[in-house]
Write a structure and sequence with these properties.
Blueprint (H helix, E strand, L loop, with lengths): L7 E6 L10 E9 L2 E10 L2 H8 L5 E5 L7 H6 L6 H26 L12 H4 L12 H15 L1 E2 L7 E8 L2 H8 L14 H15 L8 E3 L2 H9 L4 H16 L29
Parallel strand pairs: 1-4, 3-7, 4-6, 5-6
Antiparallel strand pairs: 1-2, 2-3
Helix pairs in contact: 3-5, 6-9, 7-8
Length: about 280
């Protein structure tokens, strides 16, 4: 009798406009004993390639580097649908231009110094507000990413039901990277791709390869793949691997709600590995 199937563990470094210049980068591997075995890193320069990847049969679990939800206060203030799936479809129907205009108007309506509303998970994660449209345009990443997850029928624990053998989680590589190295390790601008940032990536990779890292699990990969994580000055490949390891962290905790807080907001969602904060 065949044993249980092995889960593929994946991480996705996302862009709201995939192209030959900036692709969607996907790292894939699996867990064995105390190690994450990185098998491949692939780039998708079009929506068609990414959408086809989402429809690959499971079992797989993936961490995606874009916000899955919007701040509840913004949803309420803008009188948007109060149901997650309805909210996502409504935003998609608006389209990029109208969605951008909506967020622009909302930010201008808020007091100076607090233009960008945040989700509960954004504050301990030190992540950008999903209402941000530039540097990085995470609002547009929400608009382009989440509808495609719903179209593919994947399950988003805590937010949307779907295929139980294709699991999608919000990941944030910066959260783990900061726990290893406090400075900058990447930049899309060639002029800012410095030797110091390369040394930072090398240090992060070497830390991931040791068991004493935020995951407690060693990264294992062929030398050429490991070298590519250091040599990619944009950090996309390294970020995809960190997202995959965050997804693996969740897989190891599938009996404990994948490590997610029990009471996460069903409009906002939660970022993997970010601890729950309490006000009391």
């Amino acid at each position: 009798m065949p044993g249980p199937r092995r889960w593929a563990v994946c991480g996705v470094d996302f862009t709201s406009r995939p192209s030959s210049r900036k692709s969607i980068t996907i790292a894939a591997g699996y867990f064995r004993h105390r190690g994450f075995i990185l098998e491949s890193i692939e780039d998708h320069q079009s929506w068609e390639g990414f959408e086809a990847w989402l429809h690959r049969p499971g079992p797989w679990i993936a961490g995606f580097d874009f916000p899955f939800g919007l701040p509840r206060c913004a949803v309420q203030d803008l009188q948007l649908p109060n149901d997650y799936v309805s909210l996502v479809h409504h935003c998609r129907r608006l389209g990029r231009d109208a969605f951008r205009a909506l967020l622009d108007r909302y930010r201008e309506s808020r007091p100076a110094g607090s233009r960008y509303a945040h989700r509960v998970t954004d504050l301990p994660a030190r992540s950008h507000s999903p209402l941000k449209l530039v540097n990085p345009p995470v609002g547009l990443m929400f608009l382009e990413g989440v509808p495609r997850l719903l179209d593919a029928g994947v399950r988003i624990p805590g937010l949307a039901e779907g295929d139980p053998e294709r699991l999608a989680f919000e990941a944030y590589p910066g959260f783990t990277a900061r726990a290893i190295f406090s400075g900058s390790y990447k930049n899309d601008s060639i002029a800012k791709q410095t030797p110091a940032r390369r040394r930072a990536r090398k240090f992060i990779v070497e830390t991931l390869m040791a068991a004493k890292n935020p995951f407690g699990i060693a990264l294992i990969a062929p030398p050429q793949l490991l070298a590519s994580l250091v040599n990619d000055a944009t950090g996309d490949r390294l970020d995809a691997v960190i997202c995959a390891m965050q997804a693996g962290w969740a897989l190891q905790r599938q009996q404990e709600n994948y490590g997610l807080p029990r009471g996460i907001d069903p409009l906002e969602g939660w970022i993997l590995m970010v601890p729950e904060t309490r006000s009391d």
